[in-house]
Each structure stands twice: as C-alpha cells, then as structure tokens.
Write a structure and sequence with these properties.
It is built from 13 helices and eleven strands. By secondary structure, it is an alpha/beta fold. The chain folds into two domains: 130 residues, Leucine Dehydrogenase, chain A, domain 1 (Rossmann fold), CATH 3.40.50; 156 residues, Rossmann fold (3-Layer(aba) Sandwich). The strands form two sheets. It has a six-stranded parallel sheet with strand order 8-7-6-9-10-11, with helices on both faces. It has a five-stranded mixed sheet with strand order 1-2-4-3-5, with helices on both faces. Strand 3, helix 2 and strand 4 form a beta-alpha-beta unit.
C-alpha cells in the first residue's frame, strides 16, 4: 500500500525531478509562462488511471517557485485519491498560479486556458483557493476543459456548495462513531476558515442547532458569518486551544502537525481543507491520542462530484444524489479502520489504492479520443 494522507511532496529540483516524479507516481508536470499577461503557473497531472485528471486552479502569492511546485504536487496527488474513494472515473491533477488577486485579469486567465487546452483533455480545471467561477469564465473562452463554470455558460456553478454538504455528512458520520449518534445539535464546532466551504458548512450546522465558533484572517468576512449564524469569533491564533467537540479546518492545509495537535481540545476533526495532515504520521498521532480524524479527501469530495456531473452534462440532482453517499462512504472507511486497527487516514489510503491498482490492470494513462468532444472525456 502507498502512504498518502498528508504526504509531503518531495523536495524537487531540476537535478531530481524525474526520480521524484517516479517515486510518487506523477505522470506530467507543465511549467507555463505567458509574457504579455504575466502568467506564471504549474500544472501537475498525478495519475489518470481512472480518467482525465481533475483539479482546481489555485492562485496564491507563493514565496518561492519551489513552494508553488511542492503545493501543486501534493494537491494533485490528493485529487487522485479523492476521486478514487468517491467512486468517480477521474484522475488527479491540480494547477497553481503564482500571484495574488491584484494580478487577476482576463488576459491572465485566458492564457491559462490556452495552456490547459494544449493538454488535450488530460487535465480538467475547476475553482480552488484564490479563484472564482468568474475567473473560470475567462478560462472557458479558450478551452472546454474546465468545470465549475456558471449556469449561464452551461455549468453547475460553484463546486463549494456540494463540498459544504459532504463535509457536513462526513462530520455526522464521525459524530456517530464518537458519541453514538450522528446528531450535531448542541455540539460545539470550531470552524477554521469562513470562506465558501466554511460558509456552506455553517449553514448546515446552524440549521441543526450546533454551537458554532468561527475564525478567519479576513475580519470583515468572519464578522458577517458570526452575525449570520450567531457564532462566536475566535482569533486565528487561538483556534487550536478552544474547548470544542469538533475542530473543522476549512482554510489551507498543513494545520495538523507536531505543534498544533497537542493543543487540540476536541474529540473529532472534520473539515473541508485539503491536505490537513502535515505528514502521514500525524494521522496515526491523532489516532493514538483518541481524536477521530475524518480523512479530508473522503469528506471534502463534494466539489469533484459536482465537477464530474458537469463533465457528463448531467443535472445537479445527479451530483446531489452522489454527494449524499459520502456519509455512507465515511462510515465504511471508519469500519475498515476499526476492523483492522488502523488510523482512518491509513484505511482511506488503502481503499483508494486498492481501486487504483484494480483498474490499472486494464487502463493506461488517459488520452482523449477526440479533444473536440468534451462529453466524451470520461472512459
């Protein structure tokens, strides 16, 4: 079995690029530059055993190009496992744009779209941290290989809607395992990150009667969410020290590590952020100290589920139906973990790798039969 959850991407440099790709199973890495728009981007395709690689476009002011490369590699690999566990015929990919929101322009995203189109359907884009459906509209002007676009352009809209739902369903599965009931009424949930996914999650929590604590570096946004959901605002530096039943990371990754885990004062961790574990061993650490960790790529799969339905030109109702199964999948992962004495993160990795290994015997790396036909992307 290949260790996955929280796996830190290898330190990659020109001298060890191919050995690093081989060690982690990456198929393709593309470095993209457009002089006129200022675009600097990296597209990583990890594995296309199950189908074309799907993954969002993340835009961040990375401190170094090395940091951007490390992030895109780690994220693309997580997408492979996310689709595998969700039972989807999609592979894992991701792209990152080095820059901040002040650098956004039509030209930049259209340039990104042309690079995506050059891959002939092996990589399908979506939104991620730092990008919106409006940004993807510009990408769509250059390529059909993009999902999460507005309904006006024939898409299903923002994928965070279903991600909030699947995190909520995964949280209920975790609550059942910890407290014997999946009810979240009266439970205290520390929501770290009041972005799109965090907001949709809080809608479900509020409707069920949970007590919400919320934190975000964007003070105006967190204030609005606190008023809307009658939540208590917690300073970002204090989120790990708050007494709560459930800690829910919904911002960036690497939040569960040697420094933060000893500070946790909860029984359950379940959130929408990708790559929450600093390293794979942190899943075992949480397991040993009696904190149930719901593997992030199991519970935050709503976005990829929405994207797959959009690719197939299926109605939103199909995506919602598949998303409703995530709670059952999460319970099956917990059952496997309990039966074999594993941390849930390890059990989820085993589940995903078993599916990949089984299909790999009959599939080769994905190649679109005709890149003009978007509806034929899936095998």
């Amino acid at each position: 079995m290949v260790a996955m959850s929280g796996t830190a991407a290898p330190e990659v440099s020109p001298s060890n690029l191919f050995p690093s790709m081989t060690a982690k199973g990456y198929e393709q890495i593309c470095f993209c530059h457009d002089r006129s728009s200022g675009l600097r981007a990296i597209i990583a395709i990890h594995d296309t055993t199950l189908g074309p690689a799907l993954g969002g476009i993340r835009m961040r002011p990375y401190p170094t190009e090395q940091a951007a490369l490390k992030d895109v590699l780690r994220l693309s690999r997580a997408m492979t496992f996310k689709s595998a566990v969700a039972g989807l015929n999609l592979g894992g990919g991701k792209s990152v744009i080095i820059g901040d929101s002040s650098q956004k322009s039509e030209a930049l995203f259209r340039a990104m779209g042309r690079f995506i189109h050059s891959l002939g359907g092996r990589y399908l884009a979506a939104t991620d941290v730092g990008t919106t459906s409006d940004d993807l509209t510009y990408v769509r002007m250059e390529t059909p290989y993009v999902t999460g676009i507005s309904e006006a352009w024939g898409g299903l809209g923002d994928t965070s809607l279903l991600t909030g739902l699947t995190v909520y369903l995964g949280m209920k599965a975790g609550a059942e395992a910890v407290w014997g009931s999946d009810s979240l009424a009266g439970k205290c949930v520390m929501v770290q990150g009041a972005g799109k996914v965090g907001m949709h999650l809080m809608e479900y929590l509020h409707s069920e009667g949970a007590r919400i604590l919320v934190s975000d570096v964007a003070t105006e946004r967190v204030g609005a969410m606190a008023e809307r959901f009658h939540a208590t605002v917690v300073p970002p530096g204090d989120v790990f020290d708050e007494d709560c039943d459930i800690f829910s990371p919904n911002a960036l990754g690497d939040v569960l590590n040697d420094e933060t885990i000893p500070r946790l004062r909860c029984k359950l961790v379940c959130g929408g952020a990708n790559n929450q574990l600093g390293e794979p061993r942190h899943g075992d650490v949480l397991h040993r100290i009696g904190i149930l960790y719901m593997p992030d790529y199991v519970v935050n799969s709503g976005g990829v589920i929405s994207a797959e339905s959009e690719i197939l030109h299926a109605p939103r109702s199909r995506a919602e139906e598949i998303a409703q199964r995530v709670g059952r999948t999460a319970r099956e992962v917990l059952r496997l973990a309990s039966a074999e004495g594993l941390a849930p993160s390890v059990a989820a990795d085993r589940w995903a790798q078993d599916r990949l290994d089984g299909i790999a015997a009959v599939h080769r790396p994905y190649v679109a039969s005709d890149p003009r036909h978007f509806r034929e992307l899936l095998p």
